[in-house]
Design a protein that fits this description.
There is one protein chain. The protein is globular and about 65 Å long. It has 17 helices and 21 strands. Helix content is 37%, strand content 24%. Strands 3, 5, 6, 17, 18, 19 and 20 form a seven-stranded antiparallel beta sheet that branches. It catalyses: gamma-L-glutamyl-L-cysteine + glycine + ATP = glutathione + ADP + phosphate + H(+). It comes from Chironomus riparius.
């Protein structure tokens, strides 16, 4: 889009080539020495790390909108909590999706199974992240809401220190005050331990469900090490869904026992995409965990509440009143919703297709998937829509495409050759929340921190773990 607003940089750019070269070397070493790292996807080795892609100078973000997102998080936590516990709403909203999307259908099957049997553990733990683009008019719009494996709380918590160091090295110590505090890691871990305390079994562990191969290892381990350092009496174990199938059982009181260890809290860092379920065994593990008395993060109903279809349904006129009673809160939530449209024939999908085909650049098609790399943008949409059956099409939703203002800086990636140049960037703000409760009662509800992911303005996907984005800090301005 040609008329995107361009924000000034936090400091005067370009940097002198010699200064740039020196500060990049320092920045890379700082990242490596503080765990701002990932494992290489091209050269995977458990003995080595490479720094995670980062933006050298922090990106401008309007203070008012940042604070709006922060202050809204506990309301969004409550909203998703209530959505997750509304069986009728989940059934109605996902009825069409489970006909056409096998993955969502498998999740739903587990949900219906535990509902029929009676849910063993009525408490749920939500570690959530609401993602926003700022618009050229300086108001935030929600991109998505993550209810499973909401990542980068660990590494992002290091970024205020990282950018403070860079600004200081470049002689801009006076600007550090505009980098907001970020305690995402401690906030997320405190909530896990709070859930562990509620169960009250001092011999039990917190179980992290992980992928077979973990590239985003530092972010995950930071959560584990934070718990072990601050709560040394709380054991943490890491297992794949396959491990749980091989060594997991339910005890006489439906306690989850994995490899001989009782697990009272289960934190999913995997299980959000089909590739994590190699066979029926992994689905059996997910069902066993769901049947157990452990507190799940997320429970199966929380996982379903995070689907794009639910996001689209919540934006429909009058729906928020079903979940929120305070009119002012409803208005505040409505303000962050962008245009979201169903492609189901019964819900006016044909008209939506006509609308999108007239101006495909103004829209994004999103499936019911987490993990990045799955969306269809702009000029790719017509071909997708014309080759899909009506049934296939209804597995997607359509969203107004948001064109955020552009910032400019240097994006530093591992293995890049030569001196970096200044590039046009757009940023996505994520706000983390933590909530614990039952259908009837919320026991714990907090906003706990933030992250900023930045990508080239021409890149469609911005996932850092998926390879397109870079980690960043918001530099607040009035």
């Amino acid at each position: 889009m040609d008329n995107q607003k361009i924000l000034p940089a936090a400091i005067d750019l370009p940097l002198n080539p010699k200064v740039l070269e020196e500060v990049i070397l320092k920045a890379k070493d700082w990242a490596l020495m503080h765990g701002v790292c990932m494992r290489s996807k091209t050269n995977f080795n458990t003995d080595s790390l490479q720094f995670a892609p980062f933006v050298l100078t922090p990106s401008l973000y309007p203070r008012k909108e940042f604070e709006k997102a922060v202050n809204l998080q506990t309301i969004l936590n409550e909203l998703i909590h209530k959505v997750a516990h509304d069986t009728e709403f989940l059934r109605d909203t996902l009825a069409g999706t489970i006909q056409v999307d096998e993955f969502t259908a498998n999740l739903f099957k587990i949900y219906e199974t535990v509902l029929a049997e009676g849910i063993t553990q009525i408490l749920t733990l939500g570690l959530l992240r609401s993602d926003y683009f700022n618009t050229t008019n300086n108001n935030i719009l929600q991109v998505e809401f993550n209810t499973i494996a909401s990542s980068f709380g660990g590494i992002s918590s290091k970024f205020r220190l990282f950018h403070s160091y860079i600004l200081n090295e470049l002689g801009h110590n006076d600007k550090i005050k505009n980098l907001p505090e970020n305690n995402a890691l401690s906030g997320l871990c405190d909530a896990m331990v709070e859930a562990w305390n509620i169960i009250g079994n001092t011999k039990a562990a917190i179980l992290f469900i992980i992928e077979d191969v973990t590239y985003n290892i530092c972010d995950q381990r930071f959560h584990e090490f934070q718990i072990r350092e601050n709560y040394p009496h709380v054991k943490v174990i890491r297992k794949t869904l396959t491990d749980v199938f091989n060594t997991g059982v339910l005890g006489s009181n439906k306690e989850l026992i994995v490899d001989g260890i009782v697990c009272s809290v289960v934190y999913f860092r995997a299980g959000y995409e089909p590739g994590h379920y190699h066979s029926q065994n992994e689905w059996s593990s997910r069902l066993m965990i769901e049947r157990s008395s452990a507190i799940k993060c997320p429970s199966i109903h929380y996982h379903l509440a995070g689907t794009k279809k639910v996001q689209q349904a919540l934006a429909k006129k009058g729906i928020l009143k079903r979940f929120l009673t305070d009119e002012e809160e409803i208005t505040r939530v409505k303000e962050i919703f962008t245009g979201l449209y169903s492609l189901d024939k019964e819900e006016g999908g044909d008209q939506v297709v006509d609308m999108v085909l007239k101006n495909p650049e103004g829209y994004v098609m999103k499936p019911q998937r987490e993990g990045g790399g799955n969306n269809i943008y702009g000029s790719d949409i017509p071909e997708a829509l014309t080759t899909m059956s009506e049934e296939e099409r209804s597995a997607y939703i359509v969203m107004d495409r948001i064109f955020p203002p552009i910032s400019r800086s240097y994006m530093i990636r591992p293995g890049a050759q030569g001196a970096p140049t200044i590039v046009d960037l757009v940023s996505e703000l994520g706000i983390f929340g933590a909530i614990i409760g039952t259908k009837e009662k919320i026991l714990y509800n907090r906003q706990v921190g933030h992250m900023l992911r930045t990508k080239g303005s021409s890149a469609n996907e911005g996932g850092v773990a998926a390879g397109m984005g870079a980690l960043d800090s918001p530099y607040l301005f009035d």
